[in-house]
Amino acid sequence: MGFEASFDAILPEAVDPTNLVDIDTRSVHEGEGSVEREETINLKVAAIVTQMLPNGNLVIRGRQEVRVNFEVRELFIAGVIRPEDITADNTIDSSKVAEARIIYGGRGQLTDVQQPRYGFQLLDIIYPF
Question: Interior CA angle at 105 toward 104 and 108, to 5°?
Answer without folding.
Answer: 155
